[in-house]
Design a protein that fits this description.
alpha/beta; 4-stranded parallel sheet; 3-stranded antiparallel sheet; 32 helices
């Protein structure tokens, strides 16, 4: 008997019914299903009695990356029905598609991703012919709603049409060639009994042709194909994971199969009328729970409108969009700012109407699959359970971890490894943010409940990275480092996470990537941020085990040299202070202060004299931005230069540059102001006091930013010095008390008054008493 091909759309109830009836009618010898061939030997595991949705999670890992692929099933997936119906009919059931690690699937996250983009032209003509918005609506119209008679013929015609005009790529050709070998082998082994093949409809026309082709090459004889093996040096495997309707739904970004999985679950179980009735009630209940007013009359109107749309569109029963459009017409009285989401495909956009959001949510559903208790799990799942028990991390609530205590440090590392692996339920609320941050405790929030199965699924999927928490976290950090490329700030963040996870000794590759990235980097703020992180880890983190690390030391040397070279080449005119650049100069300062000693004395041998020379040249160059000139002057002073600070300040006293120059100075050497007694403070007071109203208005924003570098206590010290210098009574805190009106606003108002006065005078409107609108205003040039 000939092979029977059943082309399906993934997650289609209509196709699932056709698959079940075909297998029950034919009682085939073999049922061949599109799915990972390497899992065929574990079909008993897949058929244990799970509550769908579930998925086969496949991974492969080589020296560069971890590849992941999901093969999801819900209760109405044609492939899921084929497996169960085939086993019930006594057939040999097999998956026949290539493994997830094969190059044809290497970049595919979802095995059941539809090929709709490739046959958009053919479906476009059908959309126009049937006057519908998209392929989901078209599919419902043609297949899900209506009589089941002739469904197989209609599906064949549909898939022949769309595949006949689409170009199959090399990946599809490789998969179809491999699946055809299984089909020919099964046909030869069936001894005249039927063979049923269930695959995505896009592949069906090609498989039918390939299976019917004569075999001319003896090597292509109809024998059972071999299962492709992993390449040398690679690792891989597959495990079952619980899945959810949220992950399946096209409205949340899933790129295959049907949207609104809860609707199609109801359609599969109760038929179209039952699905429509139940989901109208579900939408109304959700809206009422969110305090949206929905009356009984609204409910009746929604049902009436749904029935009317069903008849108007020629449907024998309500389709999904009949239901949704009826609900909108009955429950939404406002104008909508965007298209209804079911008129296209993709996630809900921001600003969607609340009622529309609840409609989509009700039809999407919140079902989460559950695995049978006997389902094998990767070693990481068991290791994490044991670690949580051993470290007392299995209870919900707030947790304070003391990093200076051995048990506290061990708990912190386990929690950070879970965080890096993105395991739900473990949130750090406070703790050290960099290596220089001397915080010795962390606060965590633990949520041990897992009502939606998200943690179980995340742990199984994280098992692709390694059998233990430490191994898996190190592999993830390694992957993140490789993905960061030459972005040194991201690489430094990976190193800090490695230190928090206790994996710093396994981060040689990340450090090597960081060192390589430094050599070509030109982003001064990013380099500064990286230097700050790595220097803090090298200097301070005896708790985390990174203090004095030679690996980190080499990064500090390269980063400091690169920054000095880049800074010396910077040129530009007056501009607002670049805070990222100033932080980079401050990081260079810290590196030179703490790592200039020779290695024999615990340092790194950084050349402070050469750096001081760079700083002097930058400070004296007129074509260097003022904030960098100020920062360079401060760096030189910190490194021992004896240049006259007061003279330097006077040289930068132009209103348009003074504040930015001081911002650079204070960012790098703010202690200069406090340690120089009253000399520098007096010069600043004199310069500011001598500014005209206009010049003060120009200088004020940058001056305010510059003094933001001083913490409150140091600002109080400066204020006290000003009061003493002017012989004024009062407290520094009174002087620093926020003004009732923003000083900048006052300065702008006075500037405006002065401009108005000058304009009136120029217009001859500043006459005598009683006639002078500007009387009492200061004359031009007055400092009153």
């Amino acid at each position: 008997m000939a092979v029977t091909f059943v082309g399906v759309r993934h997650h289609s109830p209509a196709c699932a019914r056709l698959v079940r009836s075909t297998i029950e009618r034919l009682r085939p010898a073999h049922v061949l299903v599109e799915g990972p061939v390497d899992f065929t030997g574990r079909l008993d595991e897949l058929l244990l009695g799970h509550e769908p949705p579930v998925a086969i999670f496949s991974y492969h890992r080589d020296g560069d990356r971890v590849g992941r692929c999901w093969t999801p099933f819900c209760g109405y997936s044609p492939e899921w029905i084929a497996l169960h119906a085939g086993r019930a009919a006594g057939a040999e059931v097999r998956f026949i598609d290539l493994p997830a690690w094969h190059p044809a699937l290497a970049d595919r996250d979802n095995r059941y991703a539809d090929a709709e983009r490739r046959y958009a032209e053919a479906t476009g003509r059908l959309l126009r012919e049937f006057a519908v918005d998209n392929t989901d609506v078209l599919w419902d119209h043609l297949f899900e709603i209506g009589p089941g008679e002739g469904l197989a013929e209609r599906l064949d015609a549909y898939f022949d049409l769309v595949r006949g005009e689409a170009d199959a790529g090399e990946d599809d050709t490789a998969r179809e060639t491999y699946m055809a070998r299984w089909i020919r082998a099964a046909e030869a082994d069936a001894d005249g009994r039927p063979v049923v093949v269930v695959t995505g409809g896009f592949h069906t026309p090609a498989l039918r042709a390939l299976a019917a082709a004569s075999v001319g090459d003896p090597a292509d004889a109809p024998a059972w194909p071999e299962i492709p093996a992993l390449s040398d040096g690679s690792d891989g495997g597959s495990f079952l994971v619980p899945y959810s309707f949220r992950r399946l739904d096209a409205f949340t970004g899933y790129q295959s199969g049907m949207p609104s999985p809860e609707y199609y679950e109801r359609l599969w179980a109760d038929g179209p009328d039952g699905a429509a009735a139940a989901l109208i009630e579900s939408v109304v209940k959700r809206l009422r729970e969110r305090k949206q007013a929905v009356s009984t009359a609204d409910l009746i109107a929604a049902r009436t409108l749904t029935e009317g749309l069903t008849r108007l569109r020629g449907h024998s029963a309500p389709a999904r969009t009949d239901l949704l459009d009826g609900l909108v017409a009955a429950l939404v009285a406002d104008d909508l700012d965007q298209r209804l989401p079911w008129t296209s495909r993709g996630p809900l956009g921001p600003g969607a109407h609340p009622a529309v959001v609840e409609m989509v949510g009700a039809l999407s559903g919140d079902r989460v699959g559950r695995l049978h208790p006997d389902t094998p799990a990767p070693p990481l799942v068991h290791h994490v359970a044991a670690e949580l028990e051993r470290l007392g991390l299995g209870k919900s609530g707030a947790l304070t971890v003391k990093l200076a205590q051995p048990r506290g440090l061990e708990r912190s590392r386990a929690l950070h490894r879970l965080r890096v692996l993105r395991i739900p339920g473990f949130t750090r609320e406070s703790g050290p943010d960099s290596g220089a941050d001397q915080v010795l405790e962390e606060r965590w929030k633990i949520d041990a409940a897992d009502p939606h199965g998200e943690r179980e699924a995340a742990l199984i999927e994280a098992g692709a990275y390694g059998p233990t928490l430490a191994d898996a976290a190190a592999a993830v950090l390694d992957e993140r480092g490789a993905g960061a490329g030459a972005e040194v700030e991201r690489l430094a963040a990976v190193l800090f996470d490695a230190a928090l996870c206790g994996c710093a000794d396994q981060s040689d590759r990340v450090a090597a990537s960081l060192a390589a990235g430094i050599g070509t980097a030109s982003d001064v703020p990013a380099l500064g941020a990286a230097l700050d992180v790595v220097l803090g880890l090298w200097r301070h983190d005896r708790v985390l085990g990174t203090a004095g690390s030679p690996m980190f030391g080499s990064v500090i040397i390269e980063c400091t040299d690169r920054l000095l070279w880049l800074l010396e080449g910077l040129r530009g005119g007056p501009a607002p202070a670049d805070l990222g650049r100033l932080r980079a100069v401050a990081a260079v300062r810290d590196a030179l202060l703490h790592a200039s000693a020779p290695p024999s004395a615990g340092g790194l041998g950084l050349d402070a004299d050469a750096a001081c020379g760079v700083a002097r040249r930058l400070a004296a160059a007129p074509d260097v931005p003022p904030d960098l000139r100020g920062a360079a002057f401060g760096l030189a002073r910190v490194l021992g230069d004896a240049a006259d600070a007061a003279r330097a300040v006077r040289g930068a006293a132009a209103p348009g540059t003074l504040g930015d120059w001081l911002a650079g100075l204070f960012a790098v050497a703010r202690q200069e102001v406090l340690d120089s007694g009253g000399d520098l403070l007096g010069v600043l007071d004199e310069l500011v006091d001598g500014l005209t109203e206009h010049d003060f208005l120009v200088a004020l924003p940058a001056l305010r930013q510059a003094f933001e570098f001083f913490p409150p206590r140091e600002r109080e010290s400066i204020a006290r010095g000003l009061l003493d210098r002017r012989g004024l009574r009062g407290t520094a805190r009174t002087l620093l008390r926020p003004a009732a009106v923003d000083p900048l606003l006052i300065a702008e108002a006075r500037e405006l008054e002065e401009r108005v006065g000058r304009a009136l005078t120029a217009a001859g409107l500043a006459g005598g008493p009683g006639q002078d609108p500007g009387q009492g205003r200061p004359e031009e040039g007055s400092n009153a």
